[in-house]
């Protein structure tokens, strides 16, 4: 779910501008999962652009407070959301932790890195939501540490129905600054893509796992 359509389109505009999101309907990317995709998103690119980085930091921080009040802790999901999570925690003046995909195999075998007191109210920060599996894995790890996870805020979501089902099943509220629908609207409004390319991008969104087989 996006909270504000203007923010969603502005965020999409900025991500396209710096090529954090690339649209190539005629020359698809291959994801690690093997899916063919006309879109590739790497939101870590925003870290190299101070003005855009500041915009996202402030928008996410405002959204966190608006939805959940000021949390005790901000948690970033490794590795993509560690940096943006730190920036949001700094903006809010609260502690930060990050969550590994799985516990370390050595030392203290932590999955949650940083100081997290039992019972802390936590908001999780993500950079990108696809199926939601890794994001929800982080929520489970935080709950194992007796944290109260208030919800999750992400920069961008592909808007897959599978992700929506996964978040609903785990009873985790997800809010994103922007999503695939807002991205396509912005790209179409600014003639970044043609009508034919828009049709292709919409078709992928309907059935991404079997698109372009």
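^ Assign residues to that structure.
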């Amino acid at each position: 779910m996006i909270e504000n359509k203007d923010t969603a389109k502005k965020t999409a505009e900025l991500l396209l501008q710096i090529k954090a999101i690339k649209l190539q309907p005629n020359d698809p990317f291959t994801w690690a999962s093997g899916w063919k995709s006309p879109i590739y998103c790497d939101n870590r690119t925003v870290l190299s652009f101070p003005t855009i980085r500041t915009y996202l930091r402030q928008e996410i921080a405002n959204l966190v407070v608006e939805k959940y009040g000021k949390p005790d802790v901000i948690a970033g999901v490794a590795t993509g959301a560690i940096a943006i999570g730190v920036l949001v925690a700094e903006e809010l003046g609260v502690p930060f932790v990050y969550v590994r995909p799985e516990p370390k195999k050595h030392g203290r075998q932590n999955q949650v890195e940083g100081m997290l007191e039992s019972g802390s109210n936590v908001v999780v920060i993500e950079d990108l939501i696809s199926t939601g599996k890794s994001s929800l894995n982080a929520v489970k790890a935080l709950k194992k540490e007796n944290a109260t996870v208030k919800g999750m805020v992400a920069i961008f979501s592909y808007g897959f129905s599978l992700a929506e089902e996964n978040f609903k099943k785990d009873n985790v509220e997800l809010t994103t600054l922007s999503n695939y629908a807002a991205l396509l609207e912005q790209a179409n409004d600014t003639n970044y893509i043609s009508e034919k390319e828009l049709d292709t991008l919409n078709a992928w969104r309907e059935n991404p796992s079997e698109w372009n087989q």
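The chain has a mean pLDDT of 94.
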